[in-house]
Structures are given as C-alpha cells and as structure tokens.
Write a structure and sequence with these properties.
Oligomer: single chain
Shape: elongated
Strand content: 35-45%
Number of helices: 2
Distance between the termini: 14 Å
Helix content: 10-25%
Number of strands: 10
Radius of gyration: 19 Å
Order of helices and strands: EEEEEEEHEEEH
Mean pLDDT: 91
Length: about 180
C-alpha cells in the first residue's frame, strides 16, 4: 500500500486567517476546536473544510502522458498535471473536462478516478486547504494539444521518463509518485 505524508511542519492553523465573523462582522470570532470558530455575538459557527481540486493524468492510446509546464506561481516553470479547483455547482468530473480543455485544448474521452491527497495550495498569500482528486483521462491523441490558460508549455513523456522531482507542487509530486508506484 502506498503511504504519503504532507509536509505541514511550521504551518499555522488556517483559522488564524479569519478574524471577523462573516455573518455579523464581530471581532469576537474565536476558535472552539481544531476545525471551527464561533462568533460570541450571533453564535454562528464556521467549519473550515477543504476545497475540492482535480489533477489529471492525461494518457493517449499509445500510453504516453501529457503534462504542462506551469506559467504562474506557485512553482512557475515546473511540471504539473492539468487541473484546478472545481467550480460551484460543478461535479469533479465536469471540472476534469473543463480544466483539461482550458489548459491543453484537448477533449477528454474517458475518465477514471484514481485517489485523493490532502494539500495546502498557496494562493495570493493565502494557504488554501484542498483535497486533490486525481484522475486518469483518456484522449484520442495529442495532436491538437496546445498550452493555454495557466500552462506555459505542453510536455509529453513515456511513463518510464516521468520523474516526480520535476513537479514543483508537493501534492502533485506525491500524486505522481503514487501513480508511478501503482501503474508500473
């Protein structure tokens, strides 16, 4: 069985970023446990839960894998799996198809859920707690692939040429390690 460990050493609890009650605006918004804060004025309880994100291993019929090179921080210039946050009212599978199209111009022809990993995604000075949902996606071919949205370049590799160290985001690197361990 594959084991992983997300590096959370020296990370402050995410609730420290929320000082005011989102309902009444009171500053008496205090931690009541490791998952929640409560307003002493209106009694609203906010549970801090992770956001859903998708990460896609894109495979063609020849078994090659398509990756993107990140155009933006965090981890600009490193390899990445196409993907991103799910939108409101969108299933994870719809997010897979949308994100793959937005970043690579490819249409997904098949989707298979693989596994999930917890993650902390730094965005604009804010650490977003996520659960990354990893999928394997099939496409007819890579001939129409082009880097778009937040992808700088398309990178196609055989499974044996994939090196986890080339991936800059910790959760993605751990996901690539697991994918290789389970599919080689």
């Amino acid at each position: 069985r594959y084991r992983f460990k997300l590096n959370t050493i020296s990370m402050q609890h995410p609730l420290h970023q929320f000082a005011y009650c989102p309902i009444c605006g009171s500053k008496t918004f205090v931690e009541i446990n490791e998952k929640a804060k409560q307003c002493d004025v209106c009694r609203f309880i906010y549970y801090f839960n992770p956001s859903a994100a998708v990460a896609c291993f894109i495979r063609n019929p020849e078994g090659e894998l398509l990756f993107v090179r990140r155009a933006k921080e965090p981890a600009k210039g490193t390899l990445d799996l196409p993907g991103g946050f799910t939108d409101m009212y969108e299933t994870a599978e719809e997010a897979v198809c949308r994100e793959v199209k937005e970043e690579t111009n490819l249409n997904v022809t098949g989707i298979r859920y693989l596994f999930s990993l917890p993650n902390i995604y730094p965005y604009s000075g804010f650490n977003v707690q996520t659960v990354d949902l990893f999928y394997e996606c099939m496409v007819a071919d890579f001939s129409q692939a082009r880097a778009e949205d937040d992808a700088e370049a398309i990178v196609v590799l055989s499974k044996t040429a994939v090196r986890p160290a080339d991936f800059g985001l910790q959760s993605i690197r751990l996901g690539v390690e697991r994918y290789i361990a389970e599919n080689m």
